[in-house]
Design goal:
The protein has 411 residues and is an alpha+beta fold. The chain is built from 14 helices and 21 strands. Strands 5, 6, 12, 13, 14, 15, 19, 20 and 21 form a nine-stranded antiparallel β-sheet that branches. The protein has a five-stranded parallel β-sheet with strand order 2-1-3-4-10. Helix 1 packs across helix 2 and helix 8 packs across helix 9. The chain is globular, with a radius of gyration of 20 Å. The two termini are 36 Å apart.
């Protein structure tokens, strides 16, 4: 049941655990206009937690669709200087960033992909040198979902609008560890500790590569960068502020060697990308690069992702998620990457997180690439974990160590 108390607890979790706002720190909150009532709760919670100021960036799917329908490629590609200046100002002030997700999956399915790509590439180029603020965890950032009727009807098309909304809300609160009678902050502290334990074990092994196989046909070897670091749970800024970037999270993740992925991977869940839902797809890699692919639905969107730039055809992340995770066990396909990626092992095309390499957050882009990291303006996760997935860790000497059997950790 979606109640005012549940919303209060969700907002408290997002502010105090998600971004862990500090006294006097600015907060930048992005949300759809449909979520105005909840945004007010979040803003109040942020100020009560000590935020120095709160800025709200309002979004609207209908207006965005009109932009793509009526604007030209040329106008969409003109990103004004004030967009860059505003973001740099916020970074210079040490802002934390909180994003609320409630959008309708597939909302942009009719948008011209050429226009969508033109805008996104222009935007990424404009703010490229500002990306390290969040990618390197210089400041806190966090994402979480909020149920909407538009989203709910995609997830539960056979239910009435109200029934679908309530069911999606119950699911989101459950997997985010928010209930009427619990302490979400305490539960998240315990959950993060378990993820960190798995990351510590993997870091102890320092495998050269991982070999994935599944009943869908996946047969993929992913080599890892030397001196890699598996990360799970939350992150810490250079100033020592701990925060949880994803609410929920069930993953531990690492950095692949750009040229070290070979084989074929079959997606186990649809991927929502640029407002379109890509279904039943596979990708084949040679020496790190995606050289062939197909999809039963929205193949053009998959092509746009892989060809977004040179680096988007290579991997930037490999993540391990047990099949027995709460999101997987819910049996719900959320059509939202934040949730669906935490139901299954996943890979990300595009740029990596520097924290996955020893000393990476202090390295320049050129130094990261010299250590085997990919470089891209894109970072997009897709899911390939299954109930029968097996993962073997391969050591430098060729020794094989079981990591996953039947979709779950062996340790």
């Amino acid at each position: 049941m979606i109640t005012e108390k549940m919303y209060e607890k969700m907002a408290e979790l997002a502010v105090r655990r998600g971004v862990n706002i500090q006294k006097g720190q600015p907060l930048v909150l992005s949300a759809d206009v449909r979520d105005a009532a909840f945004v007010r709760v979040c803003v109040r919670k942020a100020y009560e937690a000590g935020a120095g100021s709160v800025t709200v960036n309002w979004l609207d799917e209908e207006l965005t669709k009109m932009d793509y329908e009526y604007q030209t490629v040329e106008t969409l590609s003109e990103i004004p200087d004030w967009v860059y200046d505003r973001t740099k100002y916020q970074h210079d002030k040490g802002a934390a960033y909180l994003r609320i997700l409630s959008g309708k999956p597939g909302a942009m399915k009719d948008a011209d992909p050429i226009k969508v790509n033109a805008y996104q590439q222009a935007y990424y180029r404009k703010v490229a040198d500002l990306q390290s603020y969040t990618m390197n965890n210089i400041g806190q950032w966090s994402l979480f979902g909020l149920p909407s009727k538009e989203w709910a009807k995609v997830v539960f098309p056979d239910l009435s609008e109200e029934e679908a909304y309530e069911k999606l809300g119950d699911a989101i609160f459950a997997v985010t560890r928010v209930s009427e009678d619990n302490d979400p902050l305490q539960e998240w502290e315990e959950h993060d500790a378990q993820l960190m334990r798995h990351a510590d074990i993997m870091n102890g092994h320092q495998f050269k590569a991982l070999h994935f196989t599944s009943e869908l046909g996946t047969d993929l070897t992913v080599e890892l960068v030397k001196d890699h670091i598996w990360v799970g749970g939350g992150c810490t800024t250079p100033d020592g502020v701990y925060f949880d970037p994803n609410l929920p999270t069930e993953e531990i993740f690492c950095m692949p060697l750009k040229t070290g992925t070979n084989g074929i991977v079959y997606a186990s869940r649809p991927l929502s990308y640029q407002g379109k839902v890509i279904e039943d797809f596979w990708i084949r890699f040679e020496n790190g690069k995606a050289v062939d692919f197909d999809a039963k639905k929205e193949k053009d969107a998959l092509k746009a992702l892989i060809e977004f730039d040179e680096g988007s055809s290579y991997l930037g992340e490999v993540a391990l998620v047990p099949y027995d995770s709460p999101i997987s066990q819910s049996g719900i396909l959320f059509f939202n990457t934040l949730y669906d990626e935490n139901a299954a092992c996943h890979l990300a095309l595009g740029r990596p997180y520097p924290e996955n390499l020893k000393g990476g957050t202090e390295m320049s882009d050129e130094e990261l690439e010299a250590h085997g990291a990919n470089a891209s303006m894109e970072h997009e996760d897709f899911m390939f974990g299954t109930k029968e997935m097996s993962i073997d860790g391969i050591r430098e000497d060729g020794t094989v160590v079981p990591v996953f059997r039947n979709g779950n950790f062996v340790f």
